[in-house]
Amino acid sequence: MDWRRILLLVLLLLPVTVSRAEERSWTGRTGRSEHFILYYRPENERATTNLLAAAEREYNRITDLIGVRPDETIHLYLARDRQDFQQLTAGAVPEWGIGVAIPARNCIVLITAGADRNDQSLRQILAHELSHIVLHRALKERPPPRWLDEGLAMYISHEWEFGRSVAVARALLFGSLISLDEISRVNTFTHPQADLAYTESFLAVAFIVDRFGESALQEMIGELARSGDLDLAMGISLGMTYREFLRQWNEEVVRRFNWISIISDPFILWGFMLALFVIVFILKRRRIRQTLRQWEALEEDFHGGHTPGDVSRRWDDR
After folding, report:
1. What string of pLDDT tens digits covers the 318 residues of the chain?
2. CA dist 41 to 18, 80, 96, 312, Å?
3. Its pTM surpasses 0.90
4. 37, 30 Cβ separation under 8 angstroms
5. Dihedrals φ, ψ of 94, to 5°?
6. Is the dihedral of CA 218, 223, 224, 226 positive or negative?
């Protein structure tokens, strides 16, 4: 899946809404479960197969991890195509967006059309956007740090692939890592910058889980909800200040991805290939010289006073 083309957004700073008039005048079909109302067009019915059941499973998994179970019903809209998606989101989502969460309205809008869209990817996008809804409920409508919001959503929806490792390695090589604090401006980034920002956000959350466990992450979210102070929340749950977290996280990123930056650098890669070519060339020349010396020895042996019969008997004796 090309994540640069279909980056997922929670556009909290933009006027994304599904109007109440749209909800009241919905002309498509609906389905219901314990925590969701699903809105879809008749031609999207195949995409809805088992979707509500999958949504409930994701709801239980995500709320268990974050530690909060919102009471409000979540409205889940499936757009049949790009035009339908833009209509449902009032045209506020960039043309490369395929999913949006609107926490203030407990609303998620997804687009189902696309050659690379399948049941698994649709559910992965749903998990990503649902994470935004639950986290905002957990923080009692306080805006979370953007890196935490996006990183948690990526961690929950298992969005990782080797290409992301290469992107981080290149950023290390060229000194273009994005500060976690700058990720709050992700809506203004280019596609490659936004992709890197999402990847770094995932690595920050993964660092917390790897070092301290999911329980510490849940405790940090709970403390952040109580105080609204990230530095205090990290001090209580992780035993370190935010500044110390940034330092240790950066060291871990360098440790894990610096070797990839070496082998992925085109200059180093071409240098390695040139060196390999030279080594192969030298070995082949050495082998040719050895063969020539063997031939010369046989020729000298042949012309050293032996008759053809003598040579023939020598080979017969072997």
Report:
1. 444 333 444 443 334 455 454 554 577 789 999 999 999 988 888 888 889 999 999 999 999 999 999 889 999 999 888 888 888 887 666 566 678 898 988 999 998 865 445 667 888 999 999 999 999 999 987 889 999 999 999 999 988 776 788 888 888 888 889 999 898 887 778 878 888 999 999 999 999 999 999 999 999 999 999 999 999 999 999 999 999 999 999 999 998 887 654 555 555 555 556 667 778 778 877 888 777 777 777 666 666 655 545 544 444 444
2. 15, 7, 22, 91
3. no
4. yes
5. -55, 160
6. positive
